[in-house]
Specification:
about 375 residues; about 5% helix; Porin; mainly beta; 21 strands
Length: about 375
């Protein structure tokens, strides 16, 4: 990925009134607006040493893989002299496994400091992970889903891009202060893994979820601090048997320092949910192409938890290193990334016989922006 100086003014409303970094070729540019096409190519070559996910043996599985995708970005912007703008964006993905997908598909409109945005997109990032070329979590936890043995919570249940959910957001930028009120409405069972849904036997007749996610951020020179809450409002959105586990409230705090070629991030996220508490910590650093990251997550299960059935906790720790080689063969916007990670899962239930496990991996990524 390209690493940008994350000044707030360049990351909030200004993004909506300009083009994405990959929209590079102007097809139409006249008094009615501008339409551009761009994108990027990304291919990964991976090695991973991973323990059996079912904890049934100490056998390590060694996997080699190659994957990637081509992203095509279609971006349109129309602005008026009074500051009114209309912005549309569609990002199409062609993956090497033969699948096709969509990243973004949204329409935004506003005037000067404010905008309203609807569609499919990612809202403000409250848990940035830096230059995470290769970052996986071991055990049955997941980087993005609630797994059988715990949850690496990252303040993004209501950030967006849900499989069957729509989004609507209002954002306002007043010099160094930024405010955003996002919402996600629809089926959000997709943040529970398929294994968890099968074990827990989710009720298929559930109501759709409705999340609200207010975010506030302040930029003070080279330092930015952000705070957010996400809350699920509808009862019976997630039901297991006769138990309603729909009450979910998450809290997040993030700090960023960026100057010249140095960027530091510190993130904390906490989820208060039925029968459990989840908390996560993330620390990342990037300097002259070198990236480091450390992440810690803990899930505390109450007695008679809806999935575990008992009281206890699990923990996961993950670290990564990465390096960016820019302008390969003197070609601007052609990058090679090197990345590796190590992840360790610990079962801290009293009297548990489950082993603590770990896995590791390495990746070479080719990336070209056009």
């Amino acid at each position: 990925m390209k690493t940008l100086n994350t000044k707030l003014a360049a990351a909030a409303i200004a993004v909506a009134t300009s083009f994405t970094a990959s929209a590079g070729i102007a097809i139409v540019d006249n008094d009615r607006g501008r339409f551009a096409i761009g994108g990027d190519v990304e291919f990964d070559f991976d090695y991973r040493s991973q323990k059996n996910i079912d904890f049934e043996s100490g056998v390590k599985e060694t996997n080699y893989g190659q994957g990637g995708r081509i992203l095509l970005d279609f971006d349109g912007l129309r602005t008026l002299d009074n500051g009114t703008f209309l912005h549309m964006n569609v990002e199409l993905l062609a993956e090497t496994n033969g699948n096709a997908a969509i990243d973004n598909a949204f329409l935004a409109f506003g005037q000067n400091e404010w905008k309203i945005q609807a569609g499919r997109y990612e809202a403000y990032d409250m848990f940035p992970k830096g230059q995470d070329v290769f970052l996986e979590t071991t055990g049955n936890t997941s980087d993005s889903q609630y797994g059988e043995y715990g949850y690496f919570y990252q303040m993004k249940e209501a950030r967006g891009r849900g499989a069957d959910a729509g989004q609507l957001m209002y954002a306002y930028q007043a010099e160094d202060l930024y405010f955003e009120l996002g919402s996600v409405v629809g089926n959000r069972e997709d943040f529970f893994s398929e294994t968890v849904r099968n074990i827990a036997e989710f009720d298929a007749s559930n109501k759709d979820a409705f999340y609200l996610r207010p975010v506030i951020a302040y930029q003070a020179g080279d330092f930015r601090i952000s705070a957010a809450i996400e809350h699920q409002l509808i009862s019976d959105a997630f039901v297991i048997g006769e138990k309603d586990i729909s009450k979910r409230t998450g809290y997040g705090l993030s700090g960023n320092y960026a100057v010249d070629s140095l960027e530091l991030n510190a993130n904390f996220a906490y989820m208060d949910a039925v029968d459990e508490k989840n908390q996560s910590l993330g620390l990342t650093a990037l300097y002259n192409g070198f990236g480091l990251g450390y992440f810690w997550g803990e899930t505390k299960f109450d007695d008679n938890h809806w999935l575990s059935g008992s009281e206890g906790k699990t923990q996961i720790q993950t670290g990564y290193v990465s390096y960016e080689i820019a302008d390969v063969m003197a070609v601007e916007d052609f990058f090679v990334y090197l990345g590796a990670y190590y992840s360790r899962f610990e079962d801290k239930f009293e009297g548990s016989t489950e082993p603590n496990i770990s896995d590791a991996g390495a990746r070479v990524r080719l990336k070209y922006y056009f």
